[in-house]
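Q: What does the assembly look like in three dimensions?
Context provided by user:
Components: two
Sequences:
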Amino acid sequence: MIWDWNFTFQILPVLAQAAVVSIEATLLGFVIAATLGLVLAVIRIAVPWTAWTISVLVELIRSTPLLIQIFFIYFVFPKFGLVLDAFTAGVIAIGIHYAAYCSEVYRAGFDNIHRGQWEASIALNLSSWTTFRDIIIPQAIPPIVPALGNYLVALFKETPLLSAIAVLELMQTAKIIGSETFRYTEPITLVGLFFLAMSLVSAALIRALERLLNRRTVR
Amino acid sequence: MGIRTLVAMLVVALAVIGVLATQASYRLFLPGLLQGAQLTIEIAVLGSLLAVVMGVLAALARMYGPAPLRWLATVYVEIFRGTSALVQLFWLFFVLPQFGVTLDAFLVAVLALGLNVGAYGSECVRGAIQSVPRGQWEAGAALNMSRSQMLRRIILPQAFIAMIPPWGNLFIELLKSTALVSLITLTDLAFKAQQMNQNTFKTIPIFTLVLLMYLAMSLVISIGMRLLERRASLGLARGRAA
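A: Here is the predicted structure of the complete assembly.
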């Protein structure tokens, strides 16, 4: 028998528990990515001489595989006395990896703000921090949101990589079920269906959000 | 980032690998890692070819195909974009054999990564075709060209230039995803690294070399795509100037 429904219902609760871990990793990773990305983008603009260094750093992070970065943080950091548990190491790696992508999104958002806005705030004698907080960021954020949303979905789809350092998220749980029962069809297909459902729903949400934000800016 | 910066980064990366290779603790690992890199490159090249074919076919099917073909292409794109590359890899590797189809790991790797990136690629092909101004179609119609003639001779050559940068990014994504094949027992660069790490615990030299090697490969792709873009748009610029 190719697909066993009884078995499917039996493993569903276990996978649901693992899904919670995947979602936790996604949210924590995204918080790191979104904040660190913003910090990088702001430093880049506020301190011009860092621009080159930051863009090289972003290029370095984006050009190497996330899996290797996860291994790097998990295996190399302990050599410097910083022992992290697998979940933390994985979340930090994912967060840093996507921070590189997010910082480019913020940068594009900031670049879209007309130069005149900066000049106007200089004319009003605003500090560059006030300009950022009250003028640039409020205008830059709305067009950035959908792009960040896309990276949130992409990040979520990378969480199965955590299975490589034995974090008990969806993929690792599916693999364990598979190796115990010799049935891989149901667990792995369910994991795939779960990701498919989540990404279709979030794509629809992002589109709705985009429409909402557009309506507000047009008005 | 300019092409000069990229070339400079590549030179620095290769120089650092070279300098490290003179150190005994690093030299030990280089031959094994290079062996792994060879498999990584093979999978990346074949996967990229499949991705381009699938991307173009899926985009054309979704835009101009008859209804059933359109649906099929949409389902393909949504499934492969909606799930992780790792899930797809595992599904082809572990589940397909239960349906009586056993593929060897190398083939699974090329198929999964090619189909995955092809699904993303189809969106960038679609975007590039749509970015060609409507007037170009109208001009083709005025010349009494058939739809496929217009597509082949007018639209696709122009869309091609717009497609180069996003495909460059996708090829880099694909190269990075090849690290996943280490999890289905292929002895690529990532697998060699893990294996050596488990045997020797010389974590720092191994993973430093591996990161530098992936970086060098990504930079080669970036630089190649920039050169291709420059060459391809040369004809366009000349045409505009004339």
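Follow-up: Chain B has a mean pLDDT of 93.
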